[in-house]
Amino acid sequence: MTINPDDDNIEILAGDPSTGTAEDDKSLTDLIEQPAKVMRIGTMIKQLLEEVRAAPLDDASRTKLLQIHKSSIRELEDGLAPELREELERLTLPFTDDSVPSDAELRIAQAQLVGWLEGLFHGIQTALFAQQMAARAQLEQMRQLPPGMAGQQRGPGHPGTGQYL
């Protein structure tokens, strides 16, 4: 259960647990253990990629960019759940330790990482939007119930308790 501060403190309740699978229960937003850290690193990597696109890189700057790339991935992995960490490890291109990568190799690796992060962020936005739409639907459903019936849906076989005197 979550309280959404943007929609008049609407509680967002999960659906019927008997209809969902274990995979459905773990949303994309739950897979990011440290969202602020992931956002900061993602923004830094994107900015860095834009900066190095315009300038030719010498050996020293390529070595530094390689170090930044590797440390960024390590830091990102700390902020992700194991499932996303494994996906990131499968998708990132490993560099050999015996030589400095070329400009193109570094730019490709950085662009790949930026693309993966942007996909992750879009997935989070989509999940949050879906959650918000579910909350709105729940609110509309509650507004259609007669007064005093919110949270208790009585069928024909379950009459109300009546008034207390």
From TrEMBL:
Residues 1-25 are annotated as: Disordered. It comes from the Bacteria. GO terms for biological process: regulation of proteasomal protein catabolic process. Residues 1-10 have a biased composition (Acidic residues). Keywords: Proteasome. It holds the Pfam family BPA. The keyword Repeat does not apply. GO terms for cellular component: proteasome complex. InterPro entries: Proteasome_act (IPR019695). Forms a homooligomeric, either hexameric or heptameric, ring-like structure which stacks co-axially with the proteasomal alpha-rings. Belongs to the Bpa family. This is Bacterial proteasome activator. It comes from Mycolicibacterium fluoranthenivorans.
